[in-house]
Design goal:
Blueprint lengths: L20 H35 L3 H17 L1 H11 L1 H20 L4 H29 L4 H31 L3 H20 L15 H19 L6 H24 L13 H31 L4 H7 L6 H16 L1 H18 L9 H27 L7 H30 L5 H11 L1 H23 L1
Helix pairs in contact: 1-2, 1-5, 1-6, 1-7, 2-5, 2-8, 2-15, 3-4, 3-5, 3-15, 4-5, 4-7, 5-6, 5-15, 6-11, 6-12, 6-14, 8-9, 8-15, 10-14, 10-15, 10-16, 10-17, 12-13, 12-14, 13-14, 13-17, 15-16, 15-17
């Protein structure tokens, strides 16, 4: 017998990218939930004029229809993520999906502004629990590596697609009756809930043995985030002193939260998790990326509707090309991630985002849509390349018992970034608009584009550090 060559070794099979039918079913349900969250936000934005007319709301009250949801969503996200880790991800997902269903329907039946605002706040709280719970079901239900990456990219593409399609669906439904904009998510939530019960497997072992909730920490960080989001989000509508006081109080509560967590036997947020460089970079880049995107969207909508006189539906269709990421994220992005790694793909996406915003700078009083289209389609590609891989990096290597918390951190960063981008864009428009003429308005919108450009550049710089770390290995 001849000797066996030393180079002949038995290699373990490479992990398969193929998902089982049961896994696809679970992913389908979770994608439905994040799609629901996306369309819920987007549809309501285009229905605001109709809501104002029907309920007789002032501008300040109308702003609270959006702000109430943002406060509930951003303020309770960390607590929601931790609750999923402590009390069961499936249980929290199903229970708060049911709450979301009920309060969405109640919002659609509201006859007074305060009823709608209260329903929106509760819908935000429900989303703040079910969103990180859904993400953590994916990150714990799929093995770390190619399978989880594929699932997360499909999931993130669905989220972004929901937001893009929500703009169009909202315009169509609001043209019939604004209440349909709230009833439609309730119906979709019911369908998802019915499918989720059999398709999301029960996993009693996912619950922590120590289910103590750090109440002092939970109350402190929730109040802190709500004050910070409120201060930033309302900055353009209230006096500067009020904004400064709200932000200062929020930062003081963050400092108090850190003190509480250091002394807590069962902390809400284990501060050691923040020693992970990739996690911190992903959250910071996500915050800046979200700020850039929502700041740009706000500027583009004002330009198209207030300066060019386009309808809500026309504006929605104009921005539909951004939804290309819903197709690219689950198809193109996994191949790029497998070949080049997350850091390079994220950086490429952020640089494309910078390019897309710069290309919008030459807009004029009579610019054809054909000249705006490159911005929209390139931004869709940028979203496909950056959003999903950021989600992967923010949850990669995190202990299974803290996956809900990691998801809560990431979505809090996205939400706070969105509020920051909107506030900064509004502030620049107000400061840079010299008068009421079309030329003055155009000048204000062009100046405000500095916000998304600067935020995207900073996000790219932050992500470049991750690329350097990856190359140094």
């Amino acid at each position: 017998m001849g000797e066996i060559p030393l180079s002949t070794t038995v290699r373990p099979p490479a992990p398969s990218l193929r998902l089982t039918p049961r896994a696809w079913g679970m992913l389908f349900v979770l994608c439905g939930a994040i799609f629901l969250e996306g369309i819920n936000v987007a549809m309501l934005n285009v229905a605001l004029p109709a809501i104002r007319t029907d309920l007789g709301l002032s501008t300040g009250e109308l702003q609270w229809v959006i702000s109430a949801y943002v406060l509930g969503y951003g303020g309770f996200m960390l607590v929601g993520g931790k609750a999923a880790d402590l009390f069961g991800r499936r249980r929290m997902f199903l229970a708060w999906l049911a709450v979301f269903l009920v309060v969405s329907a109640l919002g659609g039946m509201a006859d007074e502004g305060w009823m709608l605002i209260a329903a929106r706040f509760l819908a935000g709280v429900a989303a703040a629990v079910m969103t990180p719970a859904g993400l953590s079901i994916i990150t714990t239900g799929f093995e770390e590596g190619p399978q989880r990456n594929q699932a997360l990219l499909v999931y993130s593409g669905t989220a972004a697609g929901g937001f893009s399609l929500g703009l169009v669906l909202g315009g169509l439904l609001a043209a019939v009756n604004w209440r349909l904009v709230l009833f439609a998510p309730a119906v979709l939530a019911l369908v998802i809930l019915v499918l989720a019960v059999p398709l999301i497997p029960a996993a009693p072992e996912e619950r922590s043995q120590d289910r103590r909730l750090d109440m002092p920490g939970a109350v402190t960080i929730t109040a802190a985030v709500m004050l910070l989001v409120l201060g930033v989000e309302r900055a353009a509508h209230v006096a500067a002193g009020w904004t400064a006081a709200a932000i200062a109080a929020g930062l003081a509560l963050v400092a108090l939260f850190v003190v509480i967590e250091r002394r807590s036997a069962a902390p809400l947020l284990r501060l050691g998790i923040l020693r992970s460089g990739p996690l911190v970079r992903a959250n910071l880049a996500g915050l800046l990326f979200a700020g850039a995107f929502f700041g740009f969207q706000f500027i583009a909508v004002l330009y198209l509707q207030e300066l060019r006189g386009w309808s809500s539906l026309q504006t929605s269709l104009a921005m539909l090309a951004i939804g290309a990421d819903a197709v690219l994220a689950p198809t193109l992005t996994p191949r790029l991630v497998n070949r080049f790694g997350n850091a390079k793909v994220i950086l490429a996406g952020l640089l494309l985002a910078v390019l897309s915003y710069v290309l919008f700078l030459p807009i004029g009083l009579d610019t054809l849509y054909l000249a705006m289209f490159p911005t929209m389609i390139i931004l869709g590609v940028a979203f496909a390349l950056a959003y999903g891989p950021l989600t992967i990096v923010a949850t990669d290597g995190v202990e299974e018992s803290e996956q809900g918390l990691a998801g809560g951190l990431l979505y809090t960063s996205f939400q706070f970034g969105a509020a920051l981008g909107l506030a900064a864009g509004t502030a620049v428009i107000v400061a840079a608009t010299a008068g009421d003429s079309p030329a003055d308005l155009l000048g204000g919108y062009r100046a405000a584009l500095a916000v998304p450009i600067a935020a995207a550049v900073l996000a790219a710089v932050v992500s470049a550090f991750g690329l350097r770390k990856e190359q140094a290995r």
